[in-house]
Amino acid sequence: MQLHKQHRIKMVFLNPNFQNPNGSLLDLERRRRVLEISSYYGIPIIEDDPYSLTAFDKTHVSTLKSMDQNGTVLYVSSLSKIVASGLRIGWIFGPQTVIERLADAKQQIDFGHSIIPEWIATQFLSSEDFSIHMHKLRDSLALNRDKIVFSLYDQLDDQVEFLIPEGGIHIWCKVKEDVSEQQLFKEAIKRGVVYVPGSVFGTQKGYARFTFGRAKEEHIHEAISRFADALRSFKKGK
């Protein structure tokens, strides 16, 4: 990665742990290089980290912020993916001056968050129930991940490529054959299957993000079967 001093990059937004949409984990060497570049050019990093606690092998996943020696990383996380999206609880770690300015901006926009969700979150995070919940959540997500991987191999073995995620709630698939993303999506919707086409994330066409976080295990195989049927139907109609 090469940059020139005259390039005016204001900030970089990264999702290094089980990235959305592709589920990848940024390796240690690349993390170090990103931090070196950030420090050298004075480019702040926004680290969005909603998934690191979902590692299926239950190992600790390091954050960029934990490696930050120069205060260039602003760390953001929340309970939306691991507890309940309705709580609307998140947090930020960063330099005190930045936090003060953000707190002031938030207060001017929404006049502060309701104290009740904050109290609920505080009680839950400080209780033994949180670790029990995370243990169950990781097991459930790993089971769903295994189910969707099996279904993709079973239904679409030679028609898609995908990375098997080690955490998070998404699996990122590439449809090998050149197909119309919009038409395939329409065929899938007709069969009751909804996913996110790759172009929504600004990627090349032919990708699909399947989310297994809240899916019921018994529905996953049927959903992939219907997607496979949509793909076959679309190909026959070409």
From TrEMBL:
SUPFAM superfamilies: PLP-dependent transferases. Keywords: Aminotransferase, Pyridoxal phosphate, Transferase. Transmembrane segments: none annotated. Residues 8-226 form the Aminotransferase class I/classII large domain. It comes from the Bacteria. Its cofactor is pyridoxal 5'-phosphate. The keyword Transferase applies. This is Aminotransferase class I/classII large domain-containing protein.
